[in-house]
Structures are given as C-alpha cells and as structure tokens.
Amino acid sequence: MNKKILLPAFVIAALSVINPASAQFKLNTKTMSAAEKGFKSVTFSDADAAKLAKEAVTWMDANNPVAAENDPYSIRLRKIFAKHQHEGGLDLNFKVYKVKDINAFACADGSVRVFSSLMDIMTDEELLGVIGHEIGHVVNKDSKDAVRAVYKREALTDAASSQSGAVNAISQSQLGSFAGALLDSRYSRKQESQADDYSYDFLKRNNYKVTALASAFTKLADLEKSSGSTRTKSEKMLSSHPDSAERAAKVMTKAKKDGLAA
Ligand SMILES: [Zn+2]
C-alpha cells in the first residue's frame, strides 16, 4: 500500500466549500519512533489485523464528531447498506463522521466510516460504489497488509520489546499516531484496481447501476481538479489513488462490454 489507509482510503479532494462550517477530521499524525527490532518474530494473523484496526477505529470514533444514530446521515447510510451488512463475509459496522473532509474507509475489523461531506456529494448508488471499493480493500486483505506494515514501521515499542512473539495491543498514548499512520498508508495501483473491480462486481451482483462507480470517480476527478494547495491531509489521500478520470473511463469501458452502459 502505498496508499492510504488503514484502511481508508478513498478519499477525495477538497471540499471545504461544501461544508465550511463543519469540523475537520482529526488525526494525530506525529511520527512515532521506529524500532523494528523484534518484529520479525511476530506472527501477524487476520485476527491481529482486525484487533489493531479496531483499536485505531475506536480511537478515531472517540476523537471525531460521530453522527448520532438518529442523525439523518446515519439513517441514510444505514438504509443504503441495510442489505449488505455481511458483504464479503465480513461483519460490517457503519458510522458517519460529520467532518468537511471527503473520505470513507473500511478497516480490517469490518468498521466502515463515511465522512458526511462525501455523502453530501454522492448519490446512494455512488456511495455504494465508493464504499464497495473500500470493502474490496478489506476483502482483498489490503487492509491487513496495511495494518501490518504500519505496525511494523511505527513499531510499537512494547511490541518490539516483546519476547512473546505475539502482537501486542497499542497503548493509549500511541493510538492516535497509529491511526494517523494507517490513514496515511498507500495502496499500490494494482490493489486500487482490484478494489475497483471488487466494487464493480458488488454493484453488478446486486443489480445496482455499475455506472455509478464511474460517476463517483468523475465527481472525484472534478474535485481534484478544483482543489489547490488548501487540501487537507486526508484530502490528499485521494491523490495517491490512480487518476480518477482514468478510473471512471475504465469502469465505463467495462460496463459497455457487459452491456450495462450505452
Ligand atoms: Zn483504494
């Protein structure tokens, strides 16, 4: 990954124009000290990735404005994904962050977090496409690889000094940095492309318009074009994805071939 995420990832570009009054997504991105010593002996399982991702998400939930269950954003998201709680064999849980950054991410533990500003600009089917892409990263184990890479790189001191060979929990004081590093992770182009394929198949399998994935990318491309140096950290995440216009074109080519677009 050389992309972003903790999974997270989708992101997009700037949109402070859209919702200037809302809060900005918060992360603690101070660099953690690296101490890889000892990591080699650690066996990293799917369960470890899920556990660490859950800790990071719990931290993000506690430090960002989460929409209440009865908030219109939460209600809308719940409705959109009502039939897809177990997509990809995962046990998904959803929350909305009421922030101005445009982003969404899914984590190895099944947590899906969608930023309200992304919901403001996307239709329901476009959100299914964008979030389907994020779920694809989890199903494809990109998320697990990301957690592992960050865990190793950021090297939790405790883990490095552990003699047990087990993955340790992250201390409270390190969680913010860990979450930030995860969000800063980057996926490879191949991983991105495969996550796009996953989303396309997800839409197709459920009889949604596959072209919604293309229109979502087109919207992101427009945002990228209009965003300048004022982009926030998470907004830059998106820029690490392959070119959005290119991705939109690829989806359309595929849709035409499948007889799903004119
Ligand atoms: Zn991605």
How does this structure look, described?
With 262 residues, this protein is mainly alpha-helical. The protein has one domain. Helix content is 51%, strand content 5%. The chain is built from eleven helices and three strands; from the N terminus they run H-H-E-E-E-H-H-H-H-H-H-H-H-H. The chain has helices at 46-63, 72-80, 116-121, 124-139, 142-154, 157-161, 172-184, 189-205, 211-226, 233-239, 244-257, and strands spanning 93-97, 104-106, 111-115. Strands 1-3-2 form a three-stranded mixed sheet, sandwiched between helices. Strand 2 (104-106) and strand 3 (111-115) form a beta hairpin. The radius of gyration is 18 Å and the shape is globular. The chain starts with 45 loop residues before the first helix and ends in a 5-residue tail after the last helix. 49% of the residues are buried. Bound molecules: zinc ion.
